[in-house]
TrEMBL record:
<keyword id="KW-0597">Phosphoprotein</keyword>
<keyword id="KW-0238">DNA-binding</keyword>
<keyword id="KW-0805">Transcription regulation</keyword>
<dbReference type="InterPro" id="IPR000792">
    <property type="entry name" value="Tscrpt_reg_LuxR_C"/>
</dbReference>
<feature type="modified residue" description="4-aspartylphosphate">
    <location>
        <position position="62"/>
    </location>
</feature>
<dbReference type="InterPro" id="IPR011006">
    <property type="entry name" value="CheY-like_superfamily"/>
</dbReference>
<dbReference type="InterPro" id="IPR001789">
    <property type="entry name" value="Sig_transdc_resp-reg_receiver"/>
</dbReference>
<dbReference type="InterPro" id="IPR016032">
    <property type="entry name" value="Sig_transdc_resp-reg_C-effctor"/>
</dbReference>
<keyword id="KW-0804">Transcription</keyword>
<protein>
    <submittedName>
        <fullName>Response regulator transcription factor</fullName>
    </submittedName>
</protein>
<dbReference type="Pfam" id="PF00196">
    <property type="entry name" value="GerE"/>
</dbReference>
<dbReference type="InterPro" id="IPR039420">
    <property type="entry name" value="WalR-like"/>
</dbReference>
<feature type="domain" description="Response regulatory">
    <location>
        <begin position="16"/>
        <end position="131"/>
    </location>
</feature>
């Protein structure tokens, strides 16, 4: 069975990724720019993704899917929730930077956030992390940890765990973190594994409404699951 580009997915190695983005350049360009990634489907709406039912290791999802003036399509947290419920590990790929929106989308089931201004190497690394069922830690999630901890919404992080979390969110390598903090590289990685597990447990066990209450946030344009446009 061939994908929409006429290729045989079974004949190609690599992480299987579906791209949902209303930008033609993103849909057409990413398959040529990400080493080790096999784009099995590239569509402009969540509805097309759900209808195609591709086998994926990760879904790369933009949050705003009405750039061509379309209405009645799912986007934001509603899109994330639909993709996650269909059983796909979801990585948000967006220009959106509002923390309340990104936090809400993580609570809806996304496994991480990558901004479109970041280097392609960061995107490729994030895809690999999500495909391995790990949470991609970003500055948005550091903000989530700070807010939720103050309200008791997340298990507490130790000072060392917070240091390593913030450093990884800025893209600092484990070797550099270890040297700066005078600890072993393996120790730094183990601290990060504990942090990732705490995030994963929290995001898996709490609903968007729970998270909004914990953080004191109200519904927003992309945060509200009940809206489709």
């Amino acid at each position: 069975m061939r994908d929409r580009r006429g290729r045989d997915p079974g004949a190609q190695p690599g992480t299987r990724v579906a791209v949902v983005d209303d930008d033609t350049v993103i849909r057409e360009g990413l398959p040529h720019l990400l080493p080790g990634v096999r784009v099995v489907l590239a569509v402009s709406s969540v509805e097309e993704l759900l209808a195609a039912r591709p086998e994926t290791d990760a879904v790369l999802l933009d949050l705003v899917l009405t750039g061509t003036g379309r209405t009645g399509v799912r986007q934001g947290a509603a899109a994330v929730e639909a993709v996650a419920r269909a059983g796909h590990r979801t990585l948000i790929y967006t220009n959106e930077r509002r923390r309340e929106v990104l936090v809400g989308c993580m609570a809806a089931g996304a496994r991480g956030v990558v901004h479109k201004a970041e280097p392609l190497a960061a995107l490729a690394a994030a895809v690999a992390e999500v495909a391995a069922d790990r949470v991609v830690i970003t500055q948005a999630l550091v903000g989530l940890a700070e807010l939720a901890e103050r309200r008791g919404g997340l298990p507490s992080l130790t000072p060392r765990q917070r240091e390593i979390l913030s450093a990884r969110a800025r893209g600092e390598a484990f070797r550099s973190i270890a040297e700066r903090l005078f600890i072993g590289k393996k120790t730094a990685e183990e601290h990060m594994a504990v942090v990732t597990a705490k995030f994963a447990d929290f995001l898996r066990d709490h609903s968007p409404a729970d998270l909004e209450r914990e953080l004191g946030l109200g519904p927003g344009d992309l945060l509200d699951h009940r809206r489709l446009n």
